[in-house]
Design goal:
The structure is a single chain. The protein has one domain. 49% of the residues lie in helices and 24% in strands. The protein is built from 2 helices and 2 strands; from the N terminus they run E-H-H-E. Helix 1 runs antiparallel to helix 2. The chain is flat, with a radius of gyration of 17 Å. The chain starts with 6 loop residues before the first strand and ends with a strand. The relative contact order is 0.27.
Amino acid sequence: MEEAGFEDVVERRFYWPNGPWAKGDYYKTLGVVFQENLLAALDGISLKVLTLLGWSTEQITPFLADVRAELKGASVHAFLPMSVYTSWY
């Protein structure tokens, strides 16, 4: 951003949980919303990438069913690191 002409660039890092396992109402809600968005996008993202790697649709479909089950499982406590950059002109 600084190379593009922005000044006083500040990076804020935080994490989004995947699912309702996180502590606190805010993080539980964020986790549920993020998980729903991730599951909704899973087919589109995976089909593009995996077909480029040579997988067939017949191979991808059961694989994604397993991925969905793992993401929804209570034993998975995954999170996604996020960064937000802010600046003033």
